[in-house]
TrEMBL record:
It comes from Staphylotrichum tortipilum. Residues 1-30 are annotated as: Disordered. One of its GO terms (molecular function) is ATP binding. It comes from the Eukaryota. The lineage of its organism: Eukaryota, Fungi, Dikarya, Ascomycota, Pezizomycotina. Residues 175-425 form the Protein kinase domain. Residues 9-19 have a biased composition (Low complexity). This is Serine/threonine protein kinase-like protein. Keywords: ATP-binding, Kinase, Nucleotide-binding, Phosphoprotein, Serine/threonine-protein kinase, Transferase. ATP binds at residue 204. SUPFAM superfamilies: Protein kinase-like (PK-like). The keyword Transferase applies.
């Protein structure tokens, strides 16, 4: 099979391209294909390409694997028109190590005649990419697969769960509404308990009519698809989704996080603490971007912590209008203000704002009002010269390169690997970071799994109820916009795949 085309923003050349017919050729039953990518060994560059890397500055002659993290091989997994890019987190050119079981990618299998198999390609960045071919055989479980069209082998995991027989769709009446957790531009989130199992979830409810009138119906469906596609240590797992004639509902794992009254105080982080949190946010963005997901609303309120104190971003993929709500204008990029199209650079800009605030306790562009702040983002100085000079040189350089007003030259535009390679992170073991193996100094404490102490009382004091959606009923054509929204997570049926262990979290902005 032909290899996936390279991204224009990150030129590549195929180093080896394994691919395989999984599920088997011919008609299969509908279901979910889950894949993990672990490591490779014995990889080599195509004939005639080694000299390109041996002549690059900092590389030993003839040793193409002695390279910076920017040039570690990455993989592209494609099935059913869905493509996911997976970056190596450590290792070398011939022995790259990918996230493994910490990140699982789900693909929907339609079960149609002649459905294509999974295609896995291994690539390395290069300015002049030629096409490539190759193949691998179908499997189940974690195995080593020999590379065809190159040398070496790749260890990956494959699981297929057949779609269960159709069951009656969930309804909101099957849940006990416990508390209101928050509200956003298009809906609200409640803590709920499923009556038959007693399990606690966070249930997000969004009126369909609001989405239709704002031309956001497809985006809501896309959010469901995104949440179902990826299950990572850096995302909140989607457990189920259902709909009524008036509303959409997303059921997520409940995590004891939220706003705290004392989060309003200004805090400064030590450089070492900021480095660890930033490293995990880089891993999170790399995971999301690899799946084609832009966070678009990265800020301290949306950078929460799990029970061990590790970062867990939430609320990614929000609408553009949300970026001007509740103080989020402080994180808007210049290209958005100019009305230009944008890509993943919006998230790297926001990361620069977060780092500046961690190290100084201040926002770099805040000017007293939204209007003046947005004007300063467009054309004012980056932060305070005094604050910048107080930072260590690597931290200052990282802030300035992330807050580059030119989106074409902003650090991260060619991928997270160039952010990971920055001197600020030279002491970070990226394998430990992506597996969340660093011991975090702060671990939030809660009374019990359903504790609401970390959520703001302006929400939890409200009476939890599934209010009647206002407005006219939707037409048949409008209801069709939400076809395929319902979902039940298959992971519990996958032997050998662990569920994400989530615990209590607290807003990142309140850390000392």
């Amino acid at each position: 099979m032909p290899a996936p085309p390279s991204s224009p923003s990150c030129p590549t050349t195929p180093e080896s391209t394994p691919s395989a017919p999984f599920p088997p050729a011919g008609p299969t039953k509908p279901g979910t294909l889950t894949m993990t990518l672990h490591e490779a060994e014995g990889l080599s560059l195509p004939r005639g390409k080694k000299f390109v890397f041996s002549r690059r500055r900092g590389l030993a002659s003839g040793s193409w694997w002695a390279m910076s993290p920017v040039f570690l091989p990455y993989a592209v997994v494609e099935f059913g028109g869905v493509r996911v890019r997976i970056a190596a987190v450590e290792g070398s050119g011939e022995r790259p190590v990918w996230p493994g079981g910490t990140t699982k990618y789900n693909f929907e299998v339609e079960g149609r005649e002649g459905e294509d198999g999974v295609e896995v390609g291994v690539f390395i960045r290069h300015p002049d990419p030629p096409p490539g071919e190759g193949g691998w055989t179908g499997q189940k479980g974690v195995e080593w697969v020999k590379v065809e069209g190159g040398t070496g082998r790749v260890r990956m995991g494959v699981w297929f769960v057949e779609e269960p027989p159709a069951a009656a769709e969930l309804t909101v009446d099957e849940f006990e509404l416990l508390a209101v957790l928050g509200a956003g531009t298009y809906g609200r989130v409640m803590q709920v308990r499923k009556k038959d199992t007693g399990r606690i979830y966070a249930l997000k409810a969004v009126p369909k009519l609001v989405l239709v009138l704002c031309s956001k119906a497809q985006q809501a469906v896309d959010e469901r698809l995104i949440l179902a596609q990826i299950n990572s240590l850096f995302t909140v797992p989607l457990e189920f989704a259902f709909q009524s004639p008036q509303k959409l509902y997303l059921g997520l794992v409940f995590i004891n996080g939220g706003e705290h009254e004392h989060r309003k105080r200004q805090h400064r982080f030590t450089v070492d603490s900021a480095r660890l949190y930033m490293a995990e946010l880089v891993c999170a963005l790399e995971c999301l971007h690899g799946a084609g997901i832009l966070h678009r609303d990265l800020k301290p309120d949306n950078a929460l912590l799990d029970g061990d104190g590790h970062v867990l971003p939430c609320d990614f993929g929000l609408s553009e209008s949300a970026m001007f709500d509740d103080g989020a204008f402080n994180f808007v990029t210049p290209e958005v203000l100019r009305g230009e199209s944008y890509r993943r650079g919006v998230d790297w800009w926001a990361l620069g704002v977060v780092l500046y605030k961690m190290l100084t306790g201040k926002l770099p562009f805040y000017a007293g009002s939204p209007k003046l702040t947005l004007q300063r983002i467009s054309e004012g100085p980056v932060g305070s010269s005094m604050h910048l000079m107080q930072m260590p040189a690597p931290a200052r350089d990282l802030v300035l390169r992330l807050l580059d007003r030119d989106a074409a030259t902003r650090l991260g535009v060619r991928g997270a690997a160039e952010v990971r390679a920055h001197k600020f992170f030279e002491d970070i073991d990226w394998g430990k970071a992506v597996r969340k193996e660093y011991e975090m100094k702060f671990k939030p404490a809660v009374l019990n799994p359903s504790d609401l102490n970390n959520f703001h009382q302006r929400f939890t004091s409200q009476i939890p109820q599934d209010s009647v959606a206002e407005g006219r009923p939707l037409s048949s054509a409008e209801q069709d916009l939400f076809a395929g929204f319902s979902y039940a997570r298959p992971d519990a049926e996958l032997e050998g795949i662990e569920r994400l262990d989530t615990g209590s979290i607290e807003d990142l902005a309140q850390f000392p």
